[in-house]
Amino acid sequence: MSQQNTNKPAATDTTSVTPRATNYPQWYLDVIKRGDLAENSPVRGCMVIKPHGYAIWEKMQRELDDRFKATGHVNAYFPLFIPLSFLTKEEQHAAGFAKECAVVTHHRLKSVNGEVVVDPESKLDEPLVIRPTSETIIWAQYKNWIQSYRDLPILINQWANVVRWELRTRLFLRTTEFLWQEGHTAHATEAEAVEETARMLDVYADFAENVAAVPVIKGRKTPGERFAGALDTLCIEGLMQDGKALQMGTSHYLGQNFAKSSDVTFLSKEGKREYVYATSWGVSTRLVGALIMTHSDDNGLVLPPKLAPIHVVVIPIFKTDAEKALVLEEATKVAAELKSQGLAVKLDDRDGIMPGAKYYEWEAKGVPLRIEVGPKDLEKGSLCLVRRFVLEKEGETEQELRKRRKTFVPRMEAIASIKPTLDTMQRELFERARVFRTKRSRVINTMEEFESYFAKDGGGFAWVHWAGNHEQEDEMAKRFETTIRCIPFPDQIPEEAKGEGKCILTGQPSTQRVIMARAY
User: Fold this and answer.
1) Is residue 173 part of a domain?
2) By CB atoms within 10 Å of each CB, which of 8, 131, 133, 283 scores lowest?
3) In this predicted model, what pLDDT tens digit does every residue of 267-280 receive, in sequence order?
């Protein structure tokens, strides 16, 4: 008898997921744990990204990096440490990050009576800030690279880690150290820099919607919400399943602020010495959190196929050693045929683990498709296909939904159907998220409606007229825990939200809606 029938549990944690409707924050953490994505580290606020979680981030990197290079950008790397004097050159920038900076003041330890302590004699002449972002040190280098208009534009991206000393942390969404990319470009004219800022926001929006399957609203931040040191900040905002907004990417027009603080000038075509115009833009491992909160369910992680590290898992099912030999031969052939199509395939032929435990594990990890191969399938010349996700029907029970996820298909037809099925899942995940966002978006014209929306109806995207200042934004935040997520671009505004009106707080005339929401 084969070891397939032993009761040894799956290798990953199999604790149940707290229902979203019961406790959404705990549900989020449970999905991460069951999906084996990440865990807290011994350092407060920092996380260990486990192989499956990092594989998702690698897929994101490849997709984004290809888009950056297609728009003319190249990758480079700059130091982790920034001299304190660099950070303080741009006043707004320094003030914006001051409370989040981790600072290195000494460079050596020593042993004193068997105890390891900081060597007081190793104090640095100038403290070093562990980068919260890299504008200041990059522009110190650009000063050496830029002499003439012929040296422009500079289009550089960096994949790196940064540190921001956060008080409240949550895996992927907000951690003390996180991974990201940061683009930093230099231009001869304001028009070029403004165009670059918009172009990179479009790159982010394309990735979010066509790869991550997360619908987003494009817009600009209010002056009070801009990146520290920027003249303009553009953003994409997604809506998570609990009705909270998530800022998924930002692109900043920096004007000449950093060029002036670092004295970066160039000789123009007209022979005049001018300051360079700049942009910066970035997304981070927060995108993994966006995937979890947009698509996952009470059974664990759900991944859009374009970001799934494994597209298909093939699971052999048998009882006897004779069945094992036949089933494994077929499962191996199926896996090989799918790999030849360019798909990422896992043959789970581990001994000592029941098939049900394997189903549970791969479902929790969000693998889009499962193929079960058993003796009866061999006899019938068919394969059992199980989709991780299908669009729900109104009034459908969980049991009915699970039944629809499972189909038995003739072998040749099944092999040919995998790629089209994955494409369908990708489209349906985006469509489900888009429909959800529509249901949780509301055009609101009075404070009474606004209060009721967030106090009684759960909230979401509130399209409201606004003519207030930064202090009045703070007033709304204190009263309702909401912020202005963005001032949407005109082409992002639904028809029912267009037109003039009155500010929801002050009653002053307003020409355009903003999106207010509770947010991460």
Assistant:
1) yes
2) 8
3) 999 999 999 999 99
CB-based contacts of 276, cutoff 8 Å, min separation 6: 142, 146, 152, 186, 187, 188, 256, 259, 264, 265, 266
Q: Same domain, yes or no, for 285 and 326? A: no
Domain count, the chain: 3
Q: What is the CATH number of the domain that holds 189?
A: 3.30.930.10
Q: How far is CA 161 from the centre of its chain?
A: 15
The boundaries of the domain holding residue 399 are 305-437
Rounded mean pLDDT, 30-54: 97
Residue 56 confidence (pLDDT) above 50: yes
Q: What is the pLDDT of residue 403?
A: 85
Mean pLDDT of 243-264: 97
Angstrom distance (rounded) from CA 12 to CA 33:
9
Residues 48 and 179: beta-carbon distance below 8 Å: no
263 class by beta-carbon count within 10 Å (0-12 exposed, 13-18 middle, 19+ buried): exposed
The chain-wide mean pLDDT, for the chain, equals: 95
Domain C-terminal end among 437, 470, 493 = 437
In angstroms, rounded to a whole number, what is the distance separating the alpha carbons of residues 74 and 156?
A: 5
CB of 281 closer than 8 Å to CB of 198: no
**Alpha carbon distance 202, 199 (integer Å):** 5
Query: How far are the Cα atoms of 81, 105, 198 from residue 117, in angstroms, in the given order?
Result: 22, 14, 50
In a shared domain, residues 287 and 220: yes
Tell whether 106 is covered by a domain: no
- How far does CA 183 lie from the centroid of its chain? 16
Average pLDDT for 247-261: 97
- For 279-312, b/e burial (b = at least 16 CB within 10 A) is bbbbbbbbbbbbbbbbbbbebbbbbbbbbbbbbb
**291 touches 326 (CB < 8 A):** no
Residue 490 belongs to domain with CATH number: 3.30.110.30
CA separation for the pair 228, 139 (Å, rounded): 15
* Rounded mean pLDDT, 461-473: 96
**DSSP letter at 43?**
S
Cβ burial 443-459 (10 Å sphere, 16+ → b, else e): bbeeeeebeebbeeeeb
User: With 50 as the cut, is the pLDDT of residue 11 above it?
Assistant: no
pLDDT at 10 over 80: no
In a domain, 462, yes or no: yes
203 with 268, same domain? Answer: yes
Structural domain includes residue 119: no
